[in-house]
Amino acid sequence: MNKNLKAPDTDFLFEAVLTLKTVDECYNFFEDLCTAAEIKEFSRRFAVAKKLSDKKSYTEIISETGLSTATISRVNTCLKYGAGGYVLALERTKKD
Question: Which of 67, 62, 22, 77 is nearest to 43 (CA)?
Fold first, then answer.
């Protein structure tokens, strides 16, 4: 966990996110909280994490997403050396 992020306001935000129960509730909350561009960027990064975990190449990911190698590399670094958030979320969202 990044100690620089730890703060009462951040705790309050994350506690609020944990109260959301449906995808529609998440859409409503995040639409109020973020710009459409921010939500799309978060979504693209998580999609890149999924593609990397599925062993897709950078070339394939660039072709499918249009994202830069810098963004893909940053996500890959987080997957390998980050706090484990991507890995945990990907494991929990796996569809059989």
Answer: 67
Question: Who contacts 17 (Cβ-Cβ below 8 Å, separation ≥6)?
Answer: 29
Residues 25 and 62 in one domain: no
Q: Do residues 46 and 91 both lie within one domain? A: yes
Residue 4 structural domain: 1-33
Q: Is the pLDDT of residue 96 over 70?
A: no
**Is the entire prediction scored with pTM above 0.85?**
yes
The set of residues, in sequence order, having a beta carbon less than 8 Å from that of 45 and lying 6+ positions away, is: 71, 75
Distance CA 3, CA 15 (A): 17
